[in-house]
Amino acid sequence: MKERIIKEAFNLFWRFGIKSVTMDDIARELGISKRTIYQHYPDKDAIVILAVQQELEVQKCQMDKMDEDKLDPIEQLIQAADYMRISLAHMNPVLFHDLKKYHPLAWDLFHQYKHQYLLKSIRENLIEGIEIGFYRKNINIDMLSLLRIEQVEMAFDPTIFPADRFNMMNVQVEFVHHFLRGILTDLGFEYYTKYTEESATQANTHEK
């Protein structure tokens, strides 16, 4: 029952944001009483925290899988953006706003993930890209690592990219390509161009 509650709550948060979803809504979707929910969780904040923990674990597993697949640095960044575009395609952008404003403990979990796990992953990507000659040697690794993780969060900010004008996932993909183009060597740009053209061809083939 505890897992069912978390799963259904997360689905509702994903579709409608967090603030607009009540404990009554969660109970109604599950076909149980609100009292049953309170037997397992003291309040909605406890549900939000656990839901965020589980989602971050999913994100970490996906990142680890990319490491296991031994993708080169350019492929890693592009595929990470593509994965985000697909996995978050149906997420209501207001979720991030609600998380930051109304659930500080859950937001801290995301903040820790961003500044520890994600930052470390991007730094390693930049270092490897320099070593194999895809990225310029004179880039500031610490500065650009921070820039990249802030880009991820910025794309979810409706005050900067309002949903009626921008698609959140397209913004994420645009950011990663802009980021890459700024750090590539001639060799890296040659590989980047070949990779993106092949990916576009494969995508068109699948659509047909």
How would you portray this structure in words?
This protein has 208 residues and is mostly helical. Helix content is 75%, strand content 0%. The longest helix has 28 residues. The radius of gyration is 19 Å and the shape is elongated. The model has no long low-confidence stretch (mean pLDDT 89).
Query: How large is the count of helical segments?
Result: 10
- Work out the radius of gyration: 19 Å
Number of strands: 0
Sheet-strand content, in percent, reads under 5%
Tell me, briefly, the overall form. elongated
The largest pleated sheet is described as:
none
In terms of per-residue confidence, which ranges show pLDDT below 50 for 5 or more consecutive residues?
A: none
SSE order, one letter for each helix or strand: HHHHHHHHHH
**Class derived from helix and strand content:** mainly alpha
Overall pLDDT confidence: 89
Distance between the termini: 43 Å
State the helicity in percent bands: over 70%
Highlighted features:
10 helices, elongated, mainly alpha, 208 residues
